[in-house]
Recover the amino acids of this structure.
C-alpha cells in the first residue's frame, strides 16, 4: 500500500486529502502544516527571496500534496497579477486567520511579521491540542489496558478452573 501511494500521484493526493479531513487529527495536521509553511515562507521572504520564489520553494516544505497543489495554484494566480491574500482566499484551503494575516501583511508592508504571527498562533494551538489529546488519551489507555489484562487473566484462568472442576477427589 505504501509503495502504491508513493508511486501513484492520485493516490497520494487522496490520502493527503483524507488526512486533512479526519475529524480530530485533520485540523491539527493542517495547523502543523500551516505553521511550518508560515515559518519557512516568512524566513525566505525576510531574507530577500521574492514572493513567487518563496511560494514555489514552500511547495516542497509543506509535506502534503493537497496544500502543495494549493500553493501551486496561488503561485499561478499571483504570477498573473492577483493580490496574495485574494489568491489564497480563492483556494478555500487556508483558514480565515491566514487570509487576514496575509491581508494585514500586504497592507502594512510587514508580510514577514504577519507570517511569523501565523506560525506563533498555530504553533500554540498545536501544543494546546496535543496536550488536550494526551489528557483524554491517558484515561482511555488505562481503561483499554485494564480490559486487555482482564481478557488475558480470563483466558488463562478459565482453562485452569475447568481442569480443577474435572478432578475427582
Amino acid at each position: 500500500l505504501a509503495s502504491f501511494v508513493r508511486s501513484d500521484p492520485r493516490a497520494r493526493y487522496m490520502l493527503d486529502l483524507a488526512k486533512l479531513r479526519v475529524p480530530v487529527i485533520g485540523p491539527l495536521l493542517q495547523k502543523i502544516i500551516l505553521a511550518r509553511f508560515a515559518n519557512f515562507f516568512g524566513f525566505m521572504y525576510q531574507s530577500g527571496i521574492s514572493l513567487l520564489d518563496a511560494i514555489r520553494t514552500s511547495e516542497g516544505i509543506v509535506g502534503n500534496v493537497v496544500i502543495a497543489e494549493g500553493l501551486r495554484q496561488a503561485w499561478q494566480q499571483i504570477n498573473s497579477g492577483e493580490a496574495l491574500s485574494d489568491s489564497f482566499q480563492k483556494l478555500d484551503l487556508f483558514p480565515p486567520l491566514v487570509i487576514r494575516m496575509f491581508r494585514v501583511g500586504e497592507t502594512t508592508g510587514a508580510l514577514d511579521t504577519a507570517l511569523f504571527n501565523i506560525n506563533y498562533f498555530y504553533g500554540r494551538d498545536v501544543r494546546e491540542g496535543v496536550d488536550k489529546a494526551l489528557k483524554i488519551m491517558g484515561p482511555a489507555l488505562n481503561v483499554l489496558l485494564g480490559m486487555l489484562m482482564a481478557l488475558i487473566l480470563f483466558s488463562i484462568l478459565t482453562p485452569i478452573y475447568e481442569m480443577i472442576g474435572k478432578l475427582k477427589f
Remarks:
- The chain has eight helices and no strands.
